[in-house]
Amino acid sequence: MASSRPITQQHPCGCAVSCAAFVAARRTGSDYAYEKFNGKKSRHRNFLRRPGIIIYLRENSGDRIGHYYARAALGWMDSWANYPMLAAKGGIIKKLPAAPLWIMFPRDWIMEPRANAIPNPKTQNPKP
Which helix (H) or strand (E) holds 69? Predict the structure, then answer.
């Protein structure tokens, strides 16, 4: 389970660091992969429900260029939930304010081909 306590960012551009620290409290030593988010990929849609991922999105408001969020058990950890207040406070929000652009997830969530899988003769020996 990811930490349930949000981590408040300490710098106006510190949301990525806060999200990484939030996730690291849950998964130390994990190797993360990142991909451009594609809502048509079922893998990406399924990952959005799993605590431990980090997403980056461009918000629709003109005052924020983009922001990182980390998935928690009860919603999304927002390192500056009271934005645009200058004294940032972290919090958990239920819904993302916009669609993700990038998704970061532990590499061990990707299904690797099985080494002992039975080979398909049609693909192993194609006709000349």
Answer: strand 67-72
